[in-house]
Design a protein that fits this description.
It contains 4 helices and 7 strands. The chain is of the alpha/beta class. Helix 1 crosses helix 2. The longest helix is centred in the first third of the chain and has 12 residues. The chain binds adenosine-5'-triphosphate and magnesium ion. Adenosine-5'-triphosphate (ATP) binds next to helix 1 and helix 2.
């Protein structure tokens, strides 16, 4: 486990960028934390690190946004509006692929989550300060956290 603090949105994007550079194909990140804690802001940085040119914004109303580039695929999933009933969406097709999956509100559909992942917890400390904790599950993810 590793903990970082950011003092504004740009720093959170930058942290996402640093993490994005460490990811391998097929990895899954679970982003947990309250509304406006910074999950989507962090995902923007991951996208930059992966060479995604399109702007990354919240997928809340569509559940999934796909960013496909030649060098990397990013699946940005938001389960805020999903409950365990809403399993009509084949999340497995994405999380067990060679793309990188970033999932906001992952514990809304806990049964579909993979065994190994990087859990990133966002906590609001003050208006602009965030605590961001990295909790790896599985050896590949432990390696990533070591270098953050
Ligand atoms: N240190 C910080 N890190 C990230 N965002 C910050 C920070 N300080 C202030 N903010 C602001 O907080 C908001 C974070 O929004 P963001 O969409 O990233 O949150 P979210 O966790 O994805 O929320 P939601 O659950 O609604 O999808 C933005 O308006 C951003 O400008
Ligand atoms: Mg969001």
């Amino acid at each position: 486990m590793k903990e970082k603090y950011t003092n504004n949105a740009l720093e959170t994007t930058y942290l996402g960028h640093q993490v994005g550079l460490l990811l391998n194909k097929g990895m899954v990140l679970l982003l947990d934390g309250d509304l406006s804690a910074g999950k989507t802001t962090f995902t923007k940085g991951i996208g930059q690190a992966l060479g995604i040119k399109r702007n990354i914004n919240s997928p809340t109303f569509v559940i999934l946004k796909r960013y496909l580039e030649e060098e990397a695929k990013l699946y940005h999933i938001d389960l805020y509006r999903m409950d365990s009933e809403g399993a009509d969406f084949d999340m497995e097709d994405y999380i067990y692929s060679d793309g990188i999956s970033v999932i906001e509100w992952p514990f809304n559909v806990e049964s579909l989550l993979p065994k190994e992942y990087l859990l990133v917890k966002f906590e609001i400390i003050s208006e602009e300060e965030r605590k961001i904790s990295f909790i790896p599950k599985g050896r590949d993810y432990e390696k990533v956290v070591k270098y953050i």
